[in-house]
């Protein structure tokens, strides 16, 4: 028998190779973790800023982001949830997923069209951009199913709470050139100025098939479809009607609107 | 040609891992729709295959025969995780696009194939060069495929627009087929065809020939 094939030698070689490799990998992982988390955070912050149209090449992302105020809200009551600290609120990549596992902090959904989980968490972290104490933009995290998986992104709306500023996805698995055209700057620019709610208060915004007819009375509520990516387009529509409706930020937005209107009356 | 040069340069045209050994096709399909991402993938694979060859070759006299594959795999997997971590730290954008495909270098047949086929029998320096050569051979095909796919699919190279797409207000209707992974099959196929018409030694013997219809050509012997 070859001297390498004895039990002792086999164990020795196996264990030492494994030990050596694991030491190298853990060192690398620990050393690089700081940089990686910075990258992740910076990526998300830049998407939040760019959805609100605030991203410029001149100022750094972290500097711009310092003018953003983070708040936790309760989607069920529509109130601010001050008991949770925005800084420690789930610093993971995807906002507030942990709360969807606990039934006391989530609600059960009837369909799985938008979220892959059966439940929706009650808390969400949202972002205000203020200038001189005035709200200039509100950024809401949204997520929903596309063709290959969940798309995660940010929707920015004007302080009138009815007009869209922009929609930006930070993580998705859509086909490059087809569904991944959600990242196309030209398509993203179509969102600016679109209206969300109809006269009766329903979510009306949708991605249609084909091009929007600019003369139609519906044009304010419609976005050009992505050609060759019907499922992604429908996914985007579904996601918006879910998150902007009563199951999503609807309750909060209604309360906020009342609040802002009252403020307006006082100011006048 | 000296032995070292032969080891390094042979895998590029004469013994190309994709075109002749038909290894590592899966990632050649998956990551080639964008040239920049492809380049990152090529660098990642080339470093993994050359370093894994080097390390396997260094300890080759001590690897027990029964567990040699597992030992090779451990080394390969560690290198891949290392590359993935580095990518996440220094080039977050492309690591997002490459996602699972960096991790899948572990299962890339070229890496295991070279470790088992070359590094186990040769000393460290030639093994390293063999890995490097195979990495370059792989990269060559990927870059050709990615150039064709990005040019015809998105009208751009390295993200710079060359043919302005209809979506962006130009005239060029992007070829959606070129963006789908299976278009790489055709491009690789054409490449293999061209390569084999140039280097005829690579043409394989047909495994089976259909026999000629011999009823008409043979004389029918009268039965007695």
Can you give keywords for this protein?
heterodimer, A: 268 residues, alpha+beta, 2 domains, five-stranded antiparallel β-sheet, two-stranded antiparallel ribbon, 5 helices, 9 strands, 33% helix, globular, B: 224 residues, mainly alpha, 11 helices, 63% helix, 2% strand, flat
- Strand order, biggest sheet of chain B? 1-2
Global shape of chain A: globular
pLDDT averaged residue by residue of chain B = 86
Question: What is the ordering of alpha helices and beta strands of chain A?
Answer: HHEEEEEEEHEEHH
Q: Radius of gyration of chain A over alpha carbons?
A: 23 Å
How many strand elements of chain A? 9
* Assembly category: heterodimer
- Approximate strand percentage of chain B: under 5%
Strand proportion of chain A: 15-25%
Question: Most extensive interface: pair and counts?
Answer: A-B, 33 and 36 residues
Q: Give the total of domains of chain A.
A: 2
Trace the largest sheet of chain A across and list its strands: 1-4-5-6-7
Overview of this structure, please?
The complex is a heterodimer of chains A (268) and B (224). With 268 residues, chain A is α+β, with helices and mostly antiparallel strands. Chain A has two domains: 1-66; 72-267, no CATH class. The longest helix of chain A is centred in the first third of the chain and has 45 residues, at 7-51. Chain A is globular. In chain A, 33% of the residues lie in helices and 20% in strands. In chain A, the strands form three sheets. Chain A has a five-stranded antiparallel sheet with strand order 1-4-5-6-7. Chain A has a two-stranded antiparallel sheet with strand order 2-3. Chain A is built from five helices and nine strands, in the order ααβββββββαββαα. Chain B is flat, with a radius of gyration of 22 Å. Chain B has eleven helices and two strands; from the N terminus they run ααααααααββααα. In chain B, a hairpin with a 2-residue loop joins β1 (156-157) and β2 (160-161). Chain B has a two-stranded antiparallel sheet with strand order 1-2. Chain B has 224 residues and is an all-alpha fold. Helices cover 63% and strands 2% of the residues of chain B. The N and C termini of chain B lie far apart (67 Å). The A-B interface holds A 2, 4-5, 9-10, 13-14, 17-18, 21-22, 24-25, 28-29, 32, 35-36, 39-40, 42-43, 171, 173, 175-178, 181, 184, 186-187, 228 and B 33-34, 59, 61-67, 70-71, 74-75, 77-78, 81-82, 85-86, 88-90, 92-93, 96, 99, 153-154, 167-169, 174, 176, 179-180.
């Amino acid at each position: 028998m070859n001297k390498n094939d004895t039990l002792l030698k086999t164990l020795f070689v196996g264990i030492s190779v494994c030990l050596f490799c694991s030491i190298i990998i853990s060192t690398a992982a620990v050393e690089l973790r700081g940089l990686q988390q910075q990258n992740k955070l910076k990526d998300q912050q830049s998407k939040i800023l760019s959805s609100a149209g605030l991203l410029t090449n001149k100022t750094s992302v972290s500097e711009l982001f310092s003018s953003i105020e983070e708040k936790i809200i309760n989607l069920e009551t529509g109130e601010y949830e001050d008991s949770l600290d925005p800084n420690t609120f789930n610093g993971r990549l995807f906002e507030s997923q942990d709360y969807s596992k606990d039934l006391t902090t989530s609600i059960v959904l009837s369909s799985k069209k938008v979220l892959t989980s059966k439940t929706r968490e009650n808390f969400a972290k949202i972002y205000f951009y203020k200038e001189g104490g005035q709200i200039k933009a509100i950024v809401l995290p949204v997520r929903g199913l596309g063709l290959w998986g969940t798309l995660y992104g940010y929707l920015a709306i004007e302080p009138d709470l009815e007009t869209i500023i922009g929609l930006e996805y930070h993580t998705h698995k859509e086909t490059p050139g087809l569904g991944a055209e959600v990242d196309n700057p030209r398509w993203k620019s179509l969102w600016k100025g679109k209206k969300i709610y109809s006269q009766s208060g329903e979510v009306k915004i949708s991605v249609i098939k084909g091009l929007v007819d600019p003369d139609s009375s519906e044009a304010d509520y419609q976005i050009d479809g992505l050609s060759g990516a019907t499922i992604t387009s429908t996914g985007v529509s579904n996601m918006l009607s879910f998150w902007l409706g009563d199951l999503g930020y609807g309750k909060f937005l209604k309360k906020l609107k009342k609040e802002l209107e009252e403020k307006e009356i006082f100011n006048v | 040609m000296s032995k070292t040069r032969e080891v390094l340069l042979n895998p590029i045209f004469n013994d190309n891992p994709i075109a002749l050994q038909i290894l590592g096709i899966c990632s050649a399909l998956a990551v080639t729709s964008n040239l920049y991402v492809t380049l990152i993938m090529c660098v990642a694979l080339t470093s993994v295959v050359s370093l894994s060859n080097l390390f396997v070759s260094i300890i080759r006299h001590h690897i027990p025969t029964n567990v040699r594959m597992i030992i090779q795999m451990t080394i390969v997997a560690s290198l891949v995780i290392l590359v993935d971590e580095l990518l996440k730290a220094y080039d977050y954008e492309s690591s997002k696009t490459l996602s699972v495909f960096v991790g899948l270098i572990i299962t890339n047949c070229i890496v295991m194939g070279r470790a088992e086929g070359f590094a186990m029998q040769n000393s460290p320096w030639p093994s390293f060069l063999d890995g490097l050569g195979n990495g370059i051979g792989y990269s060559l095909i990927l870059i050709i495929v990615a150039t064709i796919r990005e040019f015809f699919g998105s009208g751009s190279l390295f993200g710079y627009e060359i043919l302005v797409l209809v979506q962006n207000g130009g005239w060029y209707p992007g070829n959606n087929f070129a963006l789908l992974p299976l278009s790489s099959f055709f491009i690789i196929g054409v490449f293999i065809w061209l390569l084999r018409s140039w280097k005829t030694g690579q043409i394989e013997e047909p495994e089976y020939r259909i026999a000629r219809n011999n009823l008409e050509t043979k004389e029918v012997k009268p039965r007695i």
